[in-house]
Write a structure and sequence with these properties.
alpha+beta, 3 helices, 177 residues
Length: 177
């Protein structure tokens, strides 16, 4: 007796492992791409047209750009680089011991600003009258001077908390330092 082969049975493919693999890859892709992202707005409404820049994967991107080639600044470890680069030739600023230095120097005469407890001070000073900006982590706002009054906010952030180096890079990009 011959065994009949049914084409319907032999050509069926079990899609359950494929669905699981696809779902796992999609989840991994979403988690790695959404990672560290901070959006910077010019007003409190945080609308689409008020987005000034975004900090994504160490790069400060202008506006709504998502291309790494459009990066204005790159923040890597304790240095701020020009464009999408981590070359020593593209170092614009170095952050060390709470102070932002111009270039890769570490001389006190090259100090641009000092960051201490969320406050950005002029030069190497930590005097109250030299306070340029205050970063309030809880609200994600950057205020002018040492004030935390709602009307003194100049920059509004949404997303991950900014580190001291990232705070300086955002202020530099916006032309506030």
């Amino acid at each position: 007796m011959l065994h009949e082969i049914s084409y319907a049975d032999s050509n069926t493919f079990n899609f359950v492992p494929m669905k699981f693999l696809f779902a796992t890859l999609a989840f991994f892709f979403c988690v790695t791409n959404i990672g560290a992202q901070t959006l910077v707005y010019s007003n409190e409404w945080m609308s689409y047209d008020s987005l000034k820049c975004s900090l994504t994967q160490e790069c400060i991107m202008p506006g709504h750009s998502t291309f790494k080639s459009d990066a204005a600044l790159t923040v890597h470890e304790s240095k701020i680089f020009k464009g999408y680069s981590t070359s020593t030739f593209d170092v614009l600023y170095t952050f060390d011991d709470g102070m932002l230095y111009a270039g890769s120097a570490s001389l006190l005469s090259d100090v641009v600003c000092t960051v201490k407890n969320g406050k950005v001070y002029r030069g190497k000073s930590t005097f109250a009258l030299d306070c340029l900006y205050t970063y309030d982590v809880a609200s994600g706002k950057i205020f002018k001077g040492s004030s935390t009054f709602a009307l003194d906010a100049v920059v509004f952030t949404q997303g991950d908390m900014l580190s001291s180096v990232e705070l300086c890079a955002v202020l530099l990009y916006l032309g506030l330092l």
